[in-house]
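Quick question: what would this complex look like in 3D?
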Amino acid sequence: MAIPVKLALETVVMTPEGSRRKDEALAVEIPYKVMLNDNEIGASMVLPTGLEEFGPGFLFGQGYIASPGQVVEVWVCPEGKISVYADVPEDSAPKEVIITSGCGGTGKISKDMLEGAFKPLDEATITFPEVREFILEVLNRSKLGQETHCVHGCGFWADGKLKAFFEDVGRHNAVDKIIGAILLGRFSPAGAIYTTGRLTSDMVLKCARIGIPIVMSRTAPSSLGLAIARKAGVTLAAYARPDRLNVFNRPDRIAG
Amino acid sequence: MAIPVKLALETVVMTPEGSRRKDEALAVEIPYKVMLNDNEIGASMVLPTGLEEFGPGFLFGQGYIASPGQVVEVWVCPEGKISVYADVPEDSAPKEVIITSGCGGTGKISKDMLEGAFKPLDEATITFPEVREFILEVLNRSKLGQETHCVHGCGFWADGKLKAFFEDVGRHNAVDKIIGAILLGRFSPAGAIYTTGRLTSDMVLKCARIGIPIVMSRTAPSSLGLAIARKAGVTLAAYARPDRLNVFNRPDRIAG
């Protein structure tokens, strides 16, 4: 069941002065079907790691699963299928959907999610020594990102330590894997998520919906990403570095 | 009809030593509905520029429009709707779809597109002096990207000049705008496209389908992006810089 996550190959580096051979590593991107209670919900392109987490996280992002406790069982078939069994109503599919702009494509969010009310968030704070350790640990673990330049990394921090880390060809998918781990009961959402990807609407939305109070990114939010953070009361920290956060909303959860 | 593409706001830069105010610019991300012959096909998050091009490009990416000449008319309603009228069969919707992993989310591609045969490409070559001018012009025009760090830029080069340039919160959307311009008959696909985003499967697939022979990116391809380039005979140049291309497929279209 060891599915490779990278391919080695030889490329040609061309310059005005001439050409030379170069070894490169490519991130593996393959389609996986996601099933819910034996019904095919969709197929998604993924980096084949953290697939047990990806299945429920994807279904949460698409609006089929709403909360931890609903997921009963996940089976990953290496031939390209993730089967999630969950205690959800048969008509749990979202009605009106919006295709998302973001980097990583769970692909769509529902209008209800975007316009509905948010549940109160579990509270959490993070200190600067923790921010430093969190970011350095995520970046240090992002080996595939460093080698292939084609994956995003995403980590989750709570109780003074890194609870999870995932990579994916899509920034969305990496967040979905974290959310899947929460849905599988591995840890509570009361903590901080850090992604190397941009915080467009759908990224912030799914974090707010699962109840993560602190959302951090190496890079920028979009206007709608920030609007959702404000509406949901999420702390949004962009351009996150070990010793610097550019806080766009709710700085009170960042402790000195 | 001047829809703003950025928002100015004040954020808090926090460090272990203290906080200070900072002005930031945010890229505007808003949902637009895309209609085909008065039927709603979907809604997508976009940067509100190049919407006339985005409409047909989006419908092409989703498999509803197949070629230039089919598009009859496009109406953009600033309240959030792009109405495309096109000469397509009523059942032009793709059957089995795969949700994409990529950064920018037109969201889905059809299984047929991925597994089907590709039409022969119109031929084109690009020289290094052209590569230099092309990339520098795109990067120079990517003002919003420089200000907001939340948009991707994409340009198209043929006949020795830059034919089009677009930005979007999604790397896919920016490519869709270029493809839309081709569908609107503004220029032939026989040229080179350069994107600041990664070349995952769907990015390469839509370029190959519309017939663009040279696909260049500032960053990396994924394994499946390369596999599609090989199958379609597309030149794939990654890590593109003014004086350097790392060519993963068909280097013969790059002239010294």
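Answer marked as accepted. The helical segments of chain A are 51-61, 111-115, 128-141, 143-148, 171-183, 201-210, 223-232.
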